[in-house]
Design brief:
Length: about 70
């Protein structure tokens, strides 16, 4: 895999994301870890299932944060 065009040296190893509804009720909190994507870009990624606390219905969600400009030139 080619080296990314750039990295953010001040980026933490993970982020914490909380999903809330419009009334502020928590649905989920997850840790998003750093990732080197197959495209050569870098950023953060997580995938999880989230349960609606009111209905019990489950949702699949994915988080992808890509550092702009990190994809290597072709």
């Amino acid at each position: 895999m080619p080296e990314p065009a750039k990295r953010d040296p001040k980026a933490p190893p993970h982020l914490v994301i909380t999903i809330k509804d419009n009334e502020g009720k928590d649905w989920s909190t997850t840790i998003v870890n750093k990732k080197d994507f197959s495209t050569g870009s870098v950023g953060y990624y997580a995938s999880e299932k989230v349960t609606n606390p009111e209905s019990g219905e489950r949702y699949q969600c994915g988080f992808s944060f890509t550092l702009i400009g990190s994809k290597p030139a072709k």
